[in-house]
Design brief:
The complex is a heterodimer of chains A (about 110) and B (about 110). Chain A is built from no helices and eleven strands. By secondary structure, chain A is mainly β. In chain A, a hairpin with a 6-residue loop joins strand 4 and strand 5. Chain A is globular. Chain A starts with a strand and ends with a strand. Chain B is built from no helices and eleven strands. In chain B, the strands form two sheets. In chain B, strands 2, 4, 5, 6, 9, 10 and 11 form a seven-stranded mixed β-sheet that branches. A four-stranded antiparallel β-sheet of chain B has the order 1-3-8-7, with no helix packed on it. The relative contact order of chain B is 0.33. Classes of the chains: A mainly beta (about 110), B mainly beta (about 110). At the A-B interface, strand 4, strand 5, strand 9 and strand 10 of A face strand 4, strand 5 and strand 10 of B.
């Protein structure tokens, strides 16, 4: 089942912060975050695993509430290069037994100078 | 080049024709995924391989779609009797275990 992302779109000025949310109706093993720029392939940002482990990049942080099946991506002091569409992807089950990564419909982020 | 490569990058075909896409994953990756993406939507899962075994298939993958990954290396996705609704970007991704997915640039299909 597809996770739900909010907001669908956000516009902000360089230096401002943004939060993108992702929620699922089923138990999650992990949450992935990817960014896709127009005409390009999605690029990995972060994985959050059940149990609290995180693997990702600098300047981007995220949280994973296992009980609520929710994740949030935090973009601080945004830069022009942050513009793009952000997708969360979820792996369901208690042990990742559902191997497929199901993506949400995306959040379009536009950073203006 | 150590990334995921897909071929062809663009394919224009007439309705009813068959098309085949190829994906070469990162060599040490054991998992390979096919996704379909239409404008303004997130990637939709089609199928997944672990080594040469096809472990999951989406309901989206009708009888006209078939995917293979012989010897656990490259993979092909074939669409038979294409329909206009098949027009989309077909993305291939590979990963090592349950880690991050590395996506290829995609193969854009246009069915006239």
């Amino acid at each position: 089942q597809q996770p739900v992302q909010s907001p669908q779109a956000v516009i902000l000025r360089e230096g401002e912060d943004a939060v993108i949310n992702c929620s699922s109706s089923k138990a999650l093993y992990s949450v992935h975050w990817y960014r896709q720029k127009h005409g390009e392939a999605p690029v990995f940002l972060m994985i959050l695993l059940k149990g609290g482990e995180q693997k990702g990049h600098e300047k981007i942080s995220a949280s994973f509430n296992e009980k609520k099946q929710q994740s949030s991506l935090y973009l601080t002091a945004s830069q022009l290069s942050y513009s793009g569409t952000y997708f969360c992807g979820t792996v369901g089950g208690t042990s990742g037994s559902a191997r497929q990564l199901t993506f949400g419909s995306g959040t379009q982020l536009t950073v203006l100078p | 080049d150590t990334g995921v490569s897909q071929d062809p990058r663009h394919k224009i075909t007439k309705r009813g024709q068959n098309v085949t896409f190829r994906c070469d994953p990162i060599s040490e990756h054991n998992r390979l995924y096919w996704y379909r993406q239409t404008l303004g939507q997130g990637p939709e899962f089609l199928t997944y391989f672990q080594n040469e075994a096809q472990l999951e298939k989406s309901r989206l993958l009708s009888d006209r779609f078939s995917a293979e990954r012989p010897k656990g290396s490259f993979s092909t996705l074939e669409i038979q009797r294409t329909e206009q609704g098949d027009s989309a970007m077909y993305l291939c991704a590979s990963s090592l275990g349950l880690g991050e997915l590395f996506f290829g640039e995609g193969s854009r299909l246009t069915v006239l």
